[in-house]
């Protein structure tokens, strides 16, 4: 403690939590509170004088556990005691503290605390103070003192009063096997069939703890052998799992219903067919009584009319339960008494499925010997072989196949056992299945072969084995993907190299028209892209429904490295897609990608800068349409035709005018754009500028000698558009050389 106080105040923890010295406490405590808890008076004084530590209500409460009077008195100077103080006094078993709090401060003793912390003296004080004899009687057996219970009973208590767990003394006496109390209460007319909060009678409890002496005593004194608890279980449900022939027979002879069912529709025979489950070290195990008893209990119940094929709510028959609990002896008894070997649960699982799941070869061999259908299907159409393969159980697989199991049976997903073995990456089982006739090219509902699955799992060992044994390397799934497509999607160069070297179609296309090269480009897989190109991938193939080549897609995704690989591999840099007729350069301009555009227009590559798409647009048209002045300058610097016409005979200058971009208009004209170029309607940029009432562009065009008298297809000169849109007369005069010329032209209009 002294060492702790040497810690600088800025680092000193205000409260000590469970992460420090007290791992089980739920709330943090101050050091002063811990001194109170331990009764460490010297440390308490030291903290008070040296650090002026403040006394809290917790200090007072905990002092009744620590038990140091000096600390307690100091705390009482500041706080009044509360109920927690009484609780801690009861916990400490210091009766003087309990009496002190009750007499000096009027704090009541809590019966629940007396019972919980087994403080008999405090219990007596509570009884003396409250005279609550009924509740004291109901809880008296908590102290395991029969004399106390008898004493209280002798003072005329309510026999049916309940303890803190809502149980009567009678029920609690059964639980802890206090026969004297049981006899005492029954002698005084206690109802032997009274139930606790769980609906259990004394006979239920005696059966649960397998107290045969009490069971017989209760039955002989009128206990209802068919009484049901809240789970609809009778005493025989609980007793049957113990395989106790004598006591089971005793209950049956006294009228126990052997076909009674609980809330889960489980009969007595269901419980009898199972092993007793016991816990040890956090694990559960099944314990089996001696073999003869295992059989006898079932035979006893069946001989008294127990329904051998009864099913619970999950559709489990007694035979399925016995198999699930791996009890071969009980299975034999049930089958010998006519149990349905073809029974299935709600999931369609049969006895052979259960036996395989439990990996019990003895049961499997026995079932085969009595003629079980080893290829029976569950609800998912899985056979026992499917189960064994999924469980990687080679011994059972060998056993089933040696007895004729269908090695190529398919489940609802059309998966064979080989598919499942590949999914499990189990090469040993794969080798065994193929050596025994498994169809190596069988397809599931997705049309995937085992090779597809092996590639998806990136298992090169299995892939090599399958290919060496005749797997179709170019088989396609429902998406028309080959194994090579999947290997590219998985970015596995080792598998790709193997598949290509063994004849995989490098240009096979999937449902979307995509070859493996296209997928590599999409993912920017440069090593794979290089390998595929080097091994003959068609770099100019149109890869999807839009007619894009791989080069188009490198531009879409800005994959410069793959772009270089494709160009070096002979990709057509002027290839046009089918949707718009755009070249890669068109898209580089649309995406404002100067790096890619620069590569495409380099001296080495020489992409056609004036190539036109379906609308007759060059890259310059598109750059202007995007209002991208920087790209426009870039294209002009690389020699783009400023007067190229689209399908409507429009030049880039027309586009710039339409967009009201005066700066762009000025830039194009300064670099040689024809100011009087006409489109299909014979309109010049000036026509459009006037129609758009853009004074600035009109001024710019006229300043570059735009023809005011140029006539469009309707015979209208540009100057009439200026008049139509009501330009100021003075402004018009400024455009003309003199008033006379203006008047002459006005008369013409």
From TrEMBL:
Q: Where is the DUF3447 domain?
A: 51-126
- SMART domains per the record? ANK
Q: Repeat among the record's keywords?
A: yes
**What InterPro entries does the record tag this protein with?**
Ankyrin_rpt, Ankyrin_rpt-contain_sf, DUF3447
> Pfam families annotated for this entry?
Ank, Ank_2, DUF3447
Give the record's keywords alphabetically.
ANK repeat, Repeat
State the ANK repeat positions. 165-197, 198-230, 231-263, 314-346, 347-379, 380-412, 413-445, 446-478, 479-511, 512-544, 546-578, 580-612, 615-647, 648-680, 681-713
Q: Does the keyword Acetylation apply?
A: no
| Name recorded for this polypeptide | DUF3447 domain-containing protein
């Amino acid at each position: 403690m002294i060492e702790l106080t040497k810690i600088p105040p800025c680092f000193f923890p205000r409260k000590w939590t469970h992460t420090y010295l007290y791992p089980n406490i739920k709330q943090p405590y101050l050091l002063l509170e811990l001194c109170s808890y331990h009764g460490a008076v010297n440390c308490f004084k030291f903290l008070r004088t040296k650090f002026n530590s403040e006394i809290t209500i917790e200090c007072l409460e905990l002092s009744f556990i620590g038990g140091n009077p000096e600390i307690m008195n100091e705390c009482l100077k500041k706080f009044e005691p509360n109920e927690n103080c009484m609780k801690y006094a009861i916990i400490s078993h210091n009766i003087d503290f309990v009496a002190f709090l009750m007499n000096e401060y009027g704090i009541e003793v809590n019966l629940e605390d007396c019972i919980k912390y087994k403080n008999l003296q405090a219990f007596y004080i509570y009884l003396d103070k409250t005279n609550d004899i009924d509740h004291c009687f109901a809880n008296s057996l908590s102290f395991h003192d029969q004399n106390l219970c008898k004493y209280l009973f002798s003072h005329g208590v309510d026999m049916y009063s309940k303890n803190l767990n809502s149980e009567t003394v009678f029920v609690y006496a059964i639980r802890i096997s206090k026969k004297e109390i049981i006899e005492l209460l029954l002698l005084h007319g206690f109802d032997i069939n009274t139930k606790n909060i769980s609906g259990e009678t004394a006979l239920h409890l005696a059966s649960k703890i397998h107290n045969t002496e009490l069971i017989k005593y209760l039955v002989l004194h009128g206990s209802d052998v068919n009484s049901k608890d809240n789970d609809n279980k009778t005493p025989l449900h609980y007793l049957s799992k113990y395989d106790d022939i004598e006591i089971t027979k005793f209950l049956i002879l006294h009228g126990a219903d052997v076909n009674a069912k609980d809330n889960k529709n489980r009969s007595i025979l269901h419980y009898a067919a199972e092993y007793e489950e016991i816990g040890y070290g956090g694990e559960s195990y099944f314990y089996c009584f001696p073999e003869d008893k295992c059989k006898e209990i079932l035979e006893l119940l069946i001989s008294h009319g127990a329904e051998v094929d009864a099913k619970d709510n999950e559709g489990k028959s007694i035979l399925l339960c016995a198999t699930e609990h791996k009890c071969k002896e009980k299975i034999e008894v049930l089958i010998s008494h006519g149990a349905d070997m073809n029974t299935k649960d709600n999931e369609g699982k049969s006895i052979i499925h259960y036996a395989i799941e439990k990996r019990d070869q003895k049961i499997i061999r026995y079932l085969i010997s009595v003629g079980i259908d080893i290829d029976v299907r569950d609800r998912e159409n899985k056979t026992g072989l499917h189960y064994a393969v999924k469980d990687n159980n080679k011994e059972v697989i060998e056993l089933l196949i040696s007895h004729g199991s269908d090695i190529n049976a398919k489940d609802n997903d059309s998966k064979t056992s080989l598919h499942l073995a590949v999914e499990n990456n189990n090469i040993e089982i794969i080798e065994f299945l193929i050596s025994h006739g498994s169809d190596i090219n069988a397809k599931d509902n997705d049309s995937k072969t085992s090779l597809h699955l092996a590639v998806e799992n990136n298992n090169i060992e299995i892939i090599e084995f399958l290919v060496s044994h005749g797997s179709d390397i170019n088989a396609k799934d429902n998406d028309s993907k080959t194994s090579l497509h999947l290997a590219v999607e998985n970015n596995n160069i080792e598998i790709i190299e193997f598949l290509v070297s063994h004849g995989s179609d490098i240009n096979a296309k999937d449902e979307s028209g995509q070859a493996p090269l296209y997928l590599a480009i999409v993912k920017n897989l440069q090593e794979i892209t290089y390998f595929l190109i080097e091994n003959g991938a068609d770099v100019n193939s149109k890869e999807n429904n839009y007619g894009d080549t791989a080069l188009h897609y490198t531009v879409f995704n800005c994959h410069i490295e793959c772009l270089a690989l494709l160009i070096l591999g002979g990709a057509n840099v002027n290839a046009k897609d089918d949707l718009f007729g755009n070249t890669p350069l068109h898209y580089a301009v649309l995406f404002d990608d100067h790096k890619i555009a620069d590569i495409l227009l380099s001296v080495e590559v020489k992409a056609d800068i004036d190539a036109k798409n379906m609308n007759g647009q060059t890259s310059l048209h598109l750059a202007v349409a995007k209002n991208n002045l920087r790209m426009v300058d870039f294209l002009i610097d690389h020699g783009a035709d400023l007067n190229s016409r689209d399908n409507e005979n429009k030049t880039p200058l027309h586009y710039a005018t339409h967009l009201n971009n005066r700066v762009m208009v000025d830039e194009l004209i300064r670099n040689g754009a024809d100011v009087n170029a006409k489109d299909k309607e014979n309109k010049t940029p000036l026509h459009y500028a006037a129609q758009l009432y853009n004074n600035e562009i009109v001024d710019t065009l006229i300043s570059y000698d735009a023809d005011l008298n140029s006539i469009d297809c309707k015979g209208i000169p540009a100057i009439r558009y200026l008049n139509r849109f009501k330009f100021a007369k003075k402004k018009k005069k400024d455009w003309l050389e003199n008033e006379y010329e203006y008047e002459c032209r006005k008369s013409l209009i």
